[in-house]
Amino acid sequence: MSSIATPPVSPSRHRLKLSALITLVLAMALVTLGSLWLVQEQARQLALPTLHNELWQAYQIDNEMNHLLDAAHSLRKGELDSDDLVVRIQVLRSLTQSLERHHLFDFLPESQSITQGTLDQIIGLSRDWDARARWGDPQGVRQLAEEIHQRLPQLLKPMHEVMVASKISLANKIDAKRQLLHRCFIGLGWTLLGLLLGGALLVSRLVSDYRKARTLSHNLAELNQHLEQRVSERTAELSEGQALLRQILDASPSDVALISDDGKQVHFVNQRLRQRLELDASSDFSLSRLFSNAREALHFSEALQARQRLDGWETQLAGAEPYWGVVSGRVLEYHGRPALLIWSYDISLRKQMEQELLVLATTDALTGLNNRHAFLQRAGELFKSAERFDQPCTLLMLDIDHFKAINDNH
């Protein structure tokens, strides 16, 4: 089977690469959000309707000062109504009010305290005149007209200097804004380049992972195919092995059976045991059918479950005629579940020979009566029993006259 050998990757190195990719993605997301916020903020500022209108406001104030001065002259000549002058004062106040909190000269190359003082003076006068101007008060408005006539001409020339200074400040402000936008666009360009490089790294990583996944998938398919082939071969070998094992067990001189630990399922019974127990099918087998005594079968099963192994259990087994046999057992695993392997063999001939030897050893060959050895053995058993259960034991001895003649004749 062909395969591509790949060097193993340690878990720490894999985690380090994963952390680097996550950090890269988060950094790209943060940079993108920051760039979008910067673009939106600049667009919002550029969309303001009052952007860079300081110079226009200064020109409007200068123009309104001239109109107010002309209106004051007309009122003194009696050519203008007092309420019209009030309107002109209010117009001037509305124009100067927008510049009260406006830093008009922040972008001048040098400090212009005199110019700022002139603007503050004009703002202060417009505020004072607006507070004193009353509708329907000709006398008070006429006094204001006299004051305007005296104070305002002195401020017309300085107001021209205010307009020049505001123009210079505005030009510098626009230039600073241009430089800021230039830096912003350069930064956005580098940001886009970084995002492009990051995207390229991510794409290359995805392509690399895709190729590795395809390679692993191909290798896995080959391994699965090889595994299926090995499983098939192994299954065939196991089938052949099980068939051979069944043949061996059927030909074995022992009686063999394999049943579940609860006795409800019979996995195997060899032909010899089925014939001995006269079973029609293997499923008819049970321990109670093997043992001639049901209690003995229960004791054997309990002992085997407790010890996991039993050898040389001599008992009477069932069959066409009960016979003596030696039973052994093992607890093992069969198809993932516990099972009991039982085997036995016939020892009837051995038991018969043992009985014959016992008779020869304990009886007199001539009379068939128990001999001295049997007498001593039986006496010892009686004495032990009497001692164990604390019971009396009596020995009776008889002396029969002329018994030898009886013994010889009979």
TrEMBL record:
The chain crosses the membrane at residues 20-39, 180-203. Pfam families: GGDEF. Residues 391-410 form the GGDEF domain. The keyword Membrane applies. Keywords: Membrane, Transmembrane, Transmembrane helix. PROSITE patterns: GGDEF. This is Diguanylate cyclase.
